[in-house]
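[recover] target loaded
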């Protein structure tokens, strides 16, 4: 039983998702993201969140920074004002919504 659990955990730990185009998706650690922000290659998460609040206001639940095919991407999970959970994929260097993704219907600008 313990051996089977170890094998499953090892398989999960070494799993790297590969997409249809064959490029592995690489998630960065916090210190690596700070370096990219300092070098001006990506926007900080705070700046990115302030940009998206204009079109999709909510509370950040989860955030990941990935590099895919040489481009940096934030994948964010936001809890919108009306309680919906919204997944957004943004260009980390501009804060713009992924052009292949439409704005989810639950998104709305900040309301007083």
């Amino acid at each position: 039983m313990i051996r089977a659990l170890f094998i499953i955990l090892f398989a999960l730990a070494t799993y790297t998702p590969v997409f249809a185009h064959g490029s592995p998706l690489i998630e960065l650690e916090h210190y690596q993201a700070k370096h990219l922000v300092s070098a001006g290659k990506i926007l900080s998460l705070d700046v990115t969140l302030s940009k998206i609040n204009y079109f999709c206001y909510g509370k950040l639940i989860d955030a990941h920074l990935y590099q895919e095919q040489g481009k940096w991407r934030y994948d964010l999970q936001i809890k919108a004002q009306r309680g919906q959970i919204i997944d957004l994929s943004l260009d980390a260097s501009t804060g713009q919504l992924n052009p292949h993704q439409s704005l989810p219907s639950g998104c709305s600008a900040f309301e007083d």
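[recover] notes: Confidence is low (pLDDT under 50) at residues 1-22.
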